[in-house]
Fold these 2 entries.
Entry 1:
Amino acid sequence: MVATAPHGETTADQTPAPQQTPRPAAVVVLAAGQGTRMKSATPKVLHALGGRTMLGHAMTAAGELAPEHLAVVVRHEREQVAAAALDLDAGALVVDQDEIPGTGRAVQCALDALDARVHATRAATLAQSDTVHDDEDGEHPLGDGVDGAVVVLAGDIPLLDGATLAELLAAHHADGNAVTILTTELDDATGYGRIVRESGTGDVTAIVEHKDATAAQREIREINSSVYVFDAAVLRRGLGGLGSDNAQGEVYLTDVVASARAEGGAVRALLSDDPMLVEGVNDRLALATLGAELNRRTLERWMRDGVTVVDPATTWVDADVELAPDVTLLPGTQLHGATTVAAGATVGPDTTLTDVEIGAGATVVRTHGSLSVIGEGASVGPFAYLRPGTVLGTKGKIGTFVETKNAEIGAGSKVPHLSYVGDAVIGEQSNIGAASVTVNYDGVAKHRTVIGSHARTGADNMFVAPVTVGDGAYTAAGSIITRDVPAGSLGVSRAQQKNIDGWVESRRPGTPAAEAAARTRDAAGDDATLAPQAKRELAEHNALNGANPSTDDDGDASASTGSA
């Protein structure tokens, strides 16, 4: 980017430092368009890329200028766009464009609303001193309204950033311009308004829309980006004289350029050498193209700041994500929303995280998660699912095929595999056995499970909440824990196992299993395959039926039908 010197000639390094540039009186974001080429029920400016809507990108860039006032002009799908604007900035002034089409009319509606706000503020202040009176010269007793620089930008230019706007504003003040326009050059400028410059000075004499351009003007490659800085008084006067005598029957904001020139004001342009920076979105193809370009720029910035991105082609990082130096992102990683990753952490491959905080040195592998916290040195995955409210402590572990929700897992505690932990608190240095479930829902309400520190729970445990397992307690494998387990106790809940001898051969005759069992019995005797417990049960059965149990050489009871 280069700044425009006086008399329209461009030169580098003339932009004042940001702190020397006065804040603008207002920024106006134009978000009233219908966006028919998007073919969507969603308003065009609410389509997202890089984790923000296009309106969000525009308002974020505008906010970096710290304007005295921010106005957003709406019309089509007014309620949705207005709600989104106020959600982004509760102090924004939402302005309704009337039925008169065109960017000029949109800005005129915004300026009228801004002037009314300024008048109301001044009236409230002056009412305290009772000094308001009619001016003998017929001027408004509260002044004209907004005074100073007014920045205008379209709401569908998502790559435009605050730094570029600040540079445009600085050039406007440095040159004392009436109007300053952000422009760029395209190899094919079809469809864009052309910048017509004065020979010799390079000042802008007009912006001609493509449909109204002559054949010679259509050869011009410098185009209007729909980003401007106006002196408020110049803008107010120019808008008052606008008409719609053009090919589209619209009120063009670009016609203010001619009126500013007619008054003798300076109209100059700041030429950007980065066309993508001011590229607008009109359809889904452009949305995808600019989304990919935004992601490329985001990754490039992080890599220059010390982040390793192994495969930029498959890695996506939203605009609001924060990464520390020495973070490593492996292929297939997507980081969305307000996700933050601390130094030395490794994320991926094939991981999607939204609004997740990852501590230093943590590893997250093949995981899907949202609204969760992963502690320093902790490990997650592969194939884990972190639902909102998950908090994993320092050096904790959430392992393979584990799902968590609204769960606090203390430092050093592990949930290694095949488990669900929901609405639960687990203390420090505890181990949860495989295939465990906190049974948190009774069909009406959710209940909490509490497992203390240094606890050891067995595999295939069901913790039927509300239930508490104390510090240092154990639970046996296969247990259904329905009552509290005191600290240091062993919780056991099992039915006694019984083996029904010969069941397969009698109930599944002719199957491979039955044939295998028969072969084994034939080779080793009737009770060769019986386990000690089954032998004891068989002996008890025979005793009840009058048979005499005997003891074999190994001391196991066996059945004998002979007399003593």
Entry 2:
Amino acid sequence: MKLFCNLFIFLLFSSSFANAIEWQELSANTFEEAKKDHKIILLNLEANWCHWCHVMEDKTYANKEVINYLNQHFITVKADQDAHPELSNRYKDYGWPATIFINADGIDVVKRAGFIAPDNFLRLLKAIVKDPSPEQKSTDFTKVINNNQNSYQLISTLEKYFINSLDIEKGGFNQSQKYIEYATFEKALFDRKNVNINTWISKSIQGAKKLSDPIWGGIYQYSTHGDWKHLHFEKLLKIQARYLHIFLLNYEYNNDKSSLMYAKKIVEYVDGFLANPNGLYNNAQDADLIQGEHAANYFKLNNIERRKLGVPKVDTNTFTDNNAAMGSALLRMYYVTQEKKYLDKVKSIENALYKRKKVSGLYAHGNENNNITSLRDQIAMADFLINLIKSDITNSKAKQELKSLCSLIKNNYLLPNGTFKSFEGNNGLMAQPLKEENIQIARIFNWYGYSSKDHNYIDIAKKTYQFLTSEALAKDYYSEASLLLLANELKGEPTQYVYLNTGKGNEFNHVLQSMLPFYSMVYIGKIHQLPKEKQELFGSFNENVLFRCTSTYCSPPIYSEEELKKELNKNK
């Protein structure tokens, strides 16, 4: 009888073990195992808040045939894309969930986006085992060099792509998913004298307001079906930061008071649902109340009815990149409203993020002890630090941090061909330069080169731009508003705004800060706090006054909010 019980327990354990996929984390050891066992690696890249990730987990990865086939023929890796920006940015065109098959040499074999039903998945698995050759030839971007110095034709083509990408009638892009991308909105503000683009701004803002949760506030990720009605209900911190910027800019540039109301509802939402005791904000809130079950009816309910049923799960990770983005957005919120509570939130984020510095001086993604440091986190921190410096020229801590960070990015991520690799550390994959990150860091380095008067950074930005305009990348461009912005910024120095604060006359610094384009430098303070070369501008002024300058020109003195807005709109 005892022997029978032991046998039964063994069989029960074996049965339950066979009904579970043997997931592991991605590491250099994963690829050594793949070489030894002659197997393909399956990377299941998911998100905690993602509806279709839950469905695939419940339907496909719970299927017994799938489990047995995977355990027999593949090395299975699961990763949270939010926790791994080095993977998220690399495979973002295929998610979420993203299903990536990688061979032992780190070469992508097959990449698939979204939910895959069990039968289709099994067919795909068997096809890969039968023929594990890559579907597409991969490019090693670390070796791409562009010797063509003339990017005019590409930029001209991208300008046409940019216009064609916009849905003038409905807003957003000419595609099934409806949302606003920040660089596109930034570029549209510069081009809004174009009637169609001005219409697009209006229509896009109207659409974005439909993404707002009318009960709790906050912005849903996007809508599908080519309209703004078919909502995907997850709420990501980075999405809240993006739309906070967009609504506030629209309020200032177009005097749309309801945009300010939507911005305030975003902050109410993140404070109410995503605030973390560590002074930062949590990563996201789930799209589903019950994971895997569509929640459209739930989000139609009022506050009391929703809370009776429960609250969708919140991912309590506090990631550096998204919190830095929220810090910048809240700084703009402070200047628009002039309410100190928003500045207090900014300071809380700033101080908490300084604690994320590793021994290397680079910023960790979260609290985890990880040997990977992503470029994405360093970019977000650099951008936040730039905004802090523009806000307060006496912030010596932010200035020192930015100086150190730019140097560390240059020393740790810059490759010989002028590109920046996406991460530092060893997870078994070759760290490739990614298009979006390289555009962002080139914009930051170009700005920093002028701010610090270290032209080495400007030269690096120009070399990165050469890579970005190479044929290897250009063939896959869609509209690339951020690259168009970079191309324009590389033509010359950033605009300088020099504001003398005497404490007399009109106070309009808050308007300047809330409307500033990225490619600008700001000097605000008493006359002794301004750079010495600027002080001579203000010898005879005894009230608040602003000059908009380049190295060879300064505007007439500006004394009021109305005059400032007129000046800022000259380039629009």
